[in-house]
Structure formats: structure tokens, C-alpha cells
């Protein structure tokens, strides 16, 4: 679902949480805090009044109404209804914080539940058509570059490996200077796949600006289509992820990004499935050499 579609057709149920996280980008600190409060289990129920909410947050009722409208709702009551419906669909236990008293089983279950929640919520708002169009652009590109810093750089390396297996050559750079050099050489007909959870990393934003100025198409995977880097992109694949006290948002975002990139990879491969299968057979056969048993 694209940003315009989200504005025109409000998601319901499990899809409301990732929708709100996308809309959070660009909000003030107080506005964002209100959204986080709404998404915290137990804070809101079907009889919660706006006066009670404002007092709990230490803010004015006007501010609550303002944020409700920024999020695309007619007012507080419509937002309250959507949030209550979300928690009716969600498993309340999966939002529980990690505790020093947790058993090993509890810890493992909470991490698994967070992963499941992240993927299910992401699936609820994923835009399959956007992925398909981005895949077509990437497949037809003359040259393909992969840009990401920090943890996102590791994701780019994984993507490079996947595409090489089906015969699509692309390059992931580990250094921001090399990314800038690469972007400076891009031309119309080229494509850059950019992975950034925050969508605000200064060096990466500059890389994208250079690539775009040179006429390359930009495919961006980030938490919000409202982020600075996403606004420069031709194609946006959103990966809004829930916060967790110990793992933070980046950990759950990585899971969703990898899943979305698998969907993107398959979509690219399907542009010429016969060629992809043929190259996969070649690359799989050659690497069998490395798996020989030496006596």
C-alpha cells in the first residue's frame, strides 16, 4: 500500500500500527510521544476520554486532536477506535518487556513473538505493486549499486550474494567514500538500491543525492516513505517496525527488511525466470567444489 493509498483508505486491525509508525516520521518530539503512548498496550480502551488521555500525557486536548488529524483521522474518537481494534487483533503478550526474571524459554518466546509480529504487521501494509515495479526497474538497469551503512551494509552484502547466484551483478560498498565515488559515475539507466532504517543517515543521503542528480533510479527500503532519503527515491518499500526495550527498533526492522528483500529478489528473478534458474544451476554447481570432502 502506497502512502497515497494509506491516506485514502485507512488500514484497519493489525495494519494500523505500522501505518502510524510511517506517519510518525517528521513529527515533533511531543507529537511522536503521543503516538508511542497510543501504541503502548493498556493505555487506551474503548471508553477512554480525550480529557483522561491529555492528563495522562501532560498535554492539552487540542494537541491530542491535532495529532489525531495529522495521522489522518477525523478526530480522537476515530483514532481511539482504530487503536482498540488493533489491540483486539494483536497478541498482548508479544509487547511484554524483557525482564530479569524471565526464564530462558520466556526470553526465546518473546524474541520469536516480536519477529512474528513484525512480519505480520509489515505484510498488512506491504505494497506488492511497488515491489514489482521496483524489481522491473532493477532487472532492466544497466548498472546496479547497493548502498547502506552500519547494519544495513550487511544486508546489502546479503542481497549482492543472492543476486549473483541468479546472474545479476551488483556491488555493495562498505565505505561511504566509495559509495560517493560509485554514485558519481552512475548514469540514466542505472539503479541504486538503498537500505536505511532511519532514512536520515547524512552520508547515505548525500550518496543518494549524487546518484539521483546523475539520473539513476533510486529504490529505497526504509521505515517511512516520509523520511529524508525516501523522499528522494523513485520507489519506496516501507519497513516500519515495533520498538523493543532490549533489541531496539533496528533489530526488528532488520528482520522485516530481509523479508521484504527476499520478496524483491524473487520479483526480480521472475522478470526472466528461465535465465534465473539457468544461472542458479551454474553458480550452485560451481560452489559444490568447495564442499568436497578431503580424506
From TrEMBL:
GO biological process terms, alphabetically, are: carbohydrate derivative metabolic process
List keywords of the entry alphabetically.
DNA-binding, Transcription, Transcription regulation
Q: Does the record bear DNA-binding in its keywords?
A: yes
Q: Where's the HTH rpiR-type domain?
A: 14-90
Name the domain of life: Bacteria
Which Pfam families is this protein grouped with?
Answer: HTH_6 (PF01418), SIS (PF01380)
What stretch or stretches form a coiled coil here? Answer: none
Q: Where is the SIS domain?
A: 134-274
Any GO molecular function: DNA-binding transcription factor activity
Q: What is the recorded name of this protein?
A: RpiR family transcriptional regulator
What is the originating organism of this protein?
Sodalis ligni
